[in-house]
Amino acid sequence: MSPEFYKIIHVIGLITLFTGIGGFLTYGAANAPRAKMVGILHGVGLLLLLVSGFGMTGKMGIGFPAWIIVKLVIFLILGALLAVAKRGRVSPRGAIVTALALGFVAAYLGLTWKYGFSIPKVAPAAETAPAQG
Ligand code: HEM
Fold first, then answer.
1. Ligand 1 atom nearest 54 alpha carbon
2. CA–CA separation, 70 and 39 (whole Å)
3. Cα(92) to centroid(ligand 1), Å
4. Mean pLDDT of the chain
5. Which of 33, 41, 50, 112 lies 20 to 30 Å from 26, alpha-carbon distance?
């Protein structure tokens, strides 16, 4: 499978995970509706992210630089967040704000590592060149 294929799975995984995290708002309510579905979305999203993340890392042959380790730590925290939210140790709203902040960092790292973790002012040449053939 190509790195691009893994990338699509990665993005589907993060959409799925964050749909589940949005469902954290149901916790704390008297009979948390759809709690099972929230758990499934959260778990499936995490699985897709991890498998595709390692898939890309392997295909790109970049080993395990610090930014990947940071993403793995973020992955673990996002994974633990469901249990923490369920037990009421953090408010549902607090869990979502934490998840959004961590998700931002993970996405920023994934999108900017090629450019020294900054946002390029002009589009990188390789991506603006007209397609050949
Ligand atoms: C924790 C939640 C995570 C989020 C929200 C996230 C998000 C993202 C995003 C938005 C991208 C950019 C995709 C693009 O270029 O269009 C990306 C790239 C990437 N992610 Fe993640 N990621 C997460 C976890 C992980 C994990 C756990 C790994 C490794 C085990 C990983 C490895 C990678 C790699 C290698 C890329 C680079 C793709 C490239 O430059 O072609 N990510 N990630």
1. 30
2. 24
3. 25
4. 91
5. 50
With b for 16 or more beta-carbon neighbours within 10 A and e for fewer, the 94-110 pattern comes to ebbebbeebbeebeebb
Residue nearest to atom 2 of ligand 1 (CA): 75
pLDDT of residue 22: 93
State CA 16 to chain mean position distance: 9
Mutational pocket test of ligand 1: of 5, 6, 8, 10, the residue with most ligand atoms within 8 Å of the beta carbon = 10
Which pLDDT score is estimated for 127?
A: 58
- Lookup result for tokens 């603006």: 128
The C-alpha atoms of residue 90 and residue 48 are separated, in whole angstroms, by 26
Copy the structure tokens of residue 88. Answer: 């009421």
pTM of the predicted model as reported, rounded to 2 decimal places:
0.90
Which protein residues are within 6 Å of ligand 1, measured from CB? 3, 7, 10, 14, 49-50, 53-54, 56-57, 68, 71-72, 74-75, 78, 103, 106-107, 110-111, 114
